[in-house]
Amino acid sequence: MSFKCGIVGLPNVGKSTTFNALTKSKNAQIANFPFCTIEPNVGIVAIPDDRLNKISIISNSKKTINSIITFVDIAGLVKGASGGEGLGNKFLSHIREVDMIVHLVRCFEDNNIQNVNATIDPLRDIEMVETELMLSDLESLEKRLDKKNKNKIKNEEEKDFINYIYNNLEKGINPSSLIKTYGKSMVKSSSLISLKPKIVVCNVGENEIGKNNAHIDKILNKYDRDNVIEISADIERQITELNDEEAESFKSALNIKESGLDKLIKASFSTLRLNTYFTSGEKESRSWTIEQNTTAPDAAEVIHSDFKKGFIKAEVMSYEDFIKFKGETGCKENGKYRIEGKDYVVKDGDILHFRFNT
Predict the structure, then answer these.
(1) For the chain, which domains are there?
(2) CB 12 within 8 A of CB 33
(3) pLDDT at 87
């Protein structure tokens, strides 16, 4: 599976600069005025994983293929977006299509860059965007609960879920923390924006990276630390313009240990509860993204649906054993090559061979 992250926020907070840096492209127009992005820009990025490179070397693979993540740069939202302000309805529809929301907020002062509000206040900006998402969901649920559409609700459980979310939204309560009693499939199939997993990305000035920032402190006091990361979109942009050696030297000079992409991927995997497994051989070594607690047949289906239909068994090696014993042969010789059935829950870093009937 691949997953799609939508970058949202108010106009002029650095979304397009961040998108271009993450995707190492110049697809998104950058300008010092609101709404320079009208249609969403889409970029596909290989997920870096040092483990895959080491596995590929040991297997002497001809190809190394990384899992991918898709970023969507969605135009800036403004107050009243749910009612159509700033082409809001169009932009909100783009957010419904993503798996996770990356909410970029401005945490730097710069009089040379326009701001849609008179002051810099990322908490206010977050709440403004969250309110528009909730109002959009409220309108969507009103239509679904309308008597004309009652036959479109599948069962009582779904009706109960919709009413529960609607009642909370009507009270101005964000329902994202109130849905633990409902199944993941129910939440996902609802396509409600306010229920999508979120990460807050704090965009700081290039001279402020890694330093104390009062704006970020306020955000950390309100939101889960694991769902908040700090980047400098301008620094990330500069890094993409350098070759690998220059980029490493530049990061070292600024004491930057992780790129913005690495931080975001790590936070995304944690928030979406994802794992990685590998397949490896002479032809290719490849990483695959799955949800945590995925069984072997479901992990096989990520490669091809026939793998699940005809699943017989999974041949399993841990990443640690594969590296320690230098590949499949070494794992077999040291009793670290296991046969697992359909109930096996795939672990992060597993290297798998699937046996199946066609």
Answers:
(1) 4-271 (3.40.50.300), 293-356 (3.10.20.30)
(2) yes
(3) 45
Question: How far does CA 179 lie from the centroid of its chain?
Answer: 20
What is the length of the chain? 358
Three-state SS string over the chain comes to: CCEEEEEECCCCCCHHHHHHHHHCCCCCCCCCCCCCCCCCEEEEEECCCHHHHHHHHHHCCCEEECCEEEEEECCCCCCCHHHCHHHHHHHHHHHCCCCEEEEEEECCCCCCCCCCCCCCCHHHHHHHHHHHHHHHHHHHHHHHHCHHHHHHCCCHHHHHHHHHHHHHHHCCCCHHHCCCCCCHHHHHHCCCHHHCCEEEEEECCCCCCCCCCHHHHHHHHHCCHHHEEEECHHHHHHHHCCCHHHHHHHHHHCCCCCCHHHHHHHHHHHHHCEEEEEEECCCEEEEEEEECCCEHHHHHHHHCHHHHHCEEEEEEECHHHHHHCCCHHHHHHCCCCEEECCCCECCCCCEEEEEECC
Burial zone of 199 (CB within 10 Å; 0-12 exposed, 13-18 middle, 19+ buried): buried
Spatial separation of the C-alpha atoms in residues 248 and 230, rounded to whole Å: 19
Residue 89 above 60 pLDDT? no
**Residue from 265, 263, 269, 268 nearest 251 by CA:** 263
pLDDT tens-digit readout, 118-153: 788 999 999 988 888 898 899 888 888 877 766 577
> 7: which strand partners?
73, 102
Residue in the block written with tokens 């969901």: 137
Distance, CA of 267 to CA of 272 (rounded, Å): 8
Q: How far is CA 212 from the centre of its chain?
A: 26
Judge contact between 277 and 295, C-beta under 8 A: no
> From CA 343, how far away is CA 74, in angstroms rounded?
40
User: pLDDT band at 319, cuts 50/70/90?
Assistant: very high
